[in-house]
Write a structure and sequence with these properties.
alpha/beta; Spore Coat Polysaccharide Biosynthesis Protein SpsA, Chain A; 7-stranded mixed β-sheet; 7 helices; about 35% helix
């Protein structure tokens, strides 16, 4: 894994995208019963591409670099994801994989790591800027998700123990993270909440947002249109 880590501007932020490569039947599984496997795959691919585009823009605005840590056996370039340097995630649960990727980037000169997943393709640039602005005063900056998880977390040092024991995939993730930070004596800045898209509720909100401004997530807007879901946005 270390040999594939990209060169990073010393002291500058790395915007890390954690994402699974498109793989039918293994992505957006909660949307699959509603729209089918092909649609679920198309939506996941679009979310990932928009997320990477947001990461690139955020990193550029902060003087850093965007990086993809991917899960899957394929190559990102085979899925049209060659815009950023990429390396495979390590083994383990989400916390272990996240912690390992963050530690790797910090070890290679990053002044901090702002980590996001691929389920919030419209996350505003202001979240990245706020997270980076807190690096000198807070150990951790985090943006909660409306479902009880989180959509962004930023650190300037490795904190592997921060993720120990979290109940991934449940509404208790953010509460558990805050409790672990207290136990470890880490200061935590809680940002405004945002939303992720892993079920019909999230997708409905996304459709409303894109109906107002398709440019906020252009790949997703095209996917929704191709799947005949975009036209439903204004009435959902």
């Amino acid at each position: 894994m270390k040999e594939q880590c990209p060169d990073l501007p010393p002291g500058c932020p790395a915007v890390l995208v954690l994402g699974r490569l498109p793989d039918a039947g293994r992505v957006k599984t909660r949307l699959e019963p509603l729209y089918g496997r092909t649609a679920a795959l198309a939506l996941h691919t679009a979310f990932l591409r928009d997320t990477i585009a947001h990461a690139v823009a955020a990193a550029a605005s902060l003087g850093g670099r965007a990086v993809l840590a991917y899960e899957g056996d394929d190559s990102p370039s085979r899925h049209g994801l060659a815009e950023v340097p990429a390396f495979p995630q390590s083994s383990g649960d989400l916390g272990q994989r996240q912690s390992a990727a963050q530690a790797l980037l910090l070890d290679h000169g990053a002044g901090g790591v702002i980590t996001i997943g691929s389920d919030s393709p419209t996350l505003p640039l202001s979240f990245f800027r706020e997270a980076w602005s807190r690096r000198a005063t807070e150990d951790v900056a985090v943006a909660p998700a409306s479902d009880g998880g989180y959509v962004l977390i930023a650190v300037t040092r490795p904190h592997a123990a921060l993720y120990n024991g979290l109940e991934w995939g449940t509404p208790r993730v953010m509460a558990g993270l805050a409790e672990r930070a207290r136990e470890l004596g880490l200061t935590l800045h809680r940002m405004a909440a945002w939303y992720d898209i892993d079920d019909e509720t999230g997708l409905r909100r996304l459709r409303r947002e894109i109906a107002v401004d398709p440019g906020v997530a252009p790949y997703t807007a095209l996917a929704l249109q191709a799947l005949s879901l975009g036209s439903m946005a204004s009435s959902s």
